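Notes, p. 3: input format for complexes.
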Amino acid sequence: MEPAQKLIETQYKSNHLLEAIQSALRKAGKDPGNLQPADLTPVDAFHIRGRQATIELADLASLKPGTQLLDVGCRLGGSARYLASEYQCDVTGVDLISEYVDTAKVLTRQVGLDHLAKFQQVNALSLPFEDEFFDVVWTEHAQMNIADKHGFYGEIARVLKPQGRLLFHDIFQGNGGPIYFPVPWADDETVNFLITPESAKDVLESSKFSILHWAYKSRASLDWFEAMLEKLKSSGPPLLGTHLLIGGAESAEVKLYNQIRNIRENRMVIIQGLAEKR
Ligand SMILES: C[S@@+](CC[C@H](N)C(=O)[O-])C[C@H]1O[C@@H](n2cnc3c(N)ncnc32)[C@H](O)[C@@H]1O
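Output follows (278 residues plus S-adenosylmethionine):
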């Protein structure tokens, strides 16, 4: 395993993830043998503003049945399943970590979407797909773990058809100073590769993309985190939640405080975007 992959694996390590999710589902009154995709939303949307952000991002593109869509850094495949079930897209989800890919496959089978959403263990910097294969590439919160931004966006451009679309929802470096650690994607700077929005625009432009939509979502993200904190204080951690993915409830709480501080102090900014391959 490459050193970078080892670091990412250590960052996202989990203990028997699938078993933990199935057990939490049962405790929350869900039958793992009879699940709907939405039953998994509390745990499988591992990005800021959860499913709402996915719905907004999908609204930016004309997704239709049969759209060939690649989700880069899909983790448990929540967005991939959403796009398969709501739009009947033909979705391929890729992630560096095999445990996530294996878990994504099981969850997708359980909700009966495995004919539309498929998963592969793949490094985003070396996508095993033909040039110009996909209509749409989708990515949420993966590039901040990847140092080689030209490699990342360049590979995405390569596998997109001309006029193909990149939809992204991502975190960038704000001008308020370095971020506070730990955050959900990084315990320290070894796996944190935030760049500024201006640098991201430059990389996208030089990777054959024209930017069609660029919306700052920091305020809405802060509101979402603050509501989550309120709920945590009043009711404690939910049975089924993303804390299962980031080292448990205590670790999740510290990361939640840091996310709030990072946005309030403009150390990180959240952007939703759409770019077209030239
Ligand atoms: C914060 S999670 C986001 C998960 C998912 N997009 C979502 O919104 O639920 C980041 C994911 O990016 C993946 N990742 C990081 N570096 C990667 C790489 N070089 N290639 C593929 N996936 C990568 C991680 O394994 C992790 O699952």
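The chain has one domain: 3-277.
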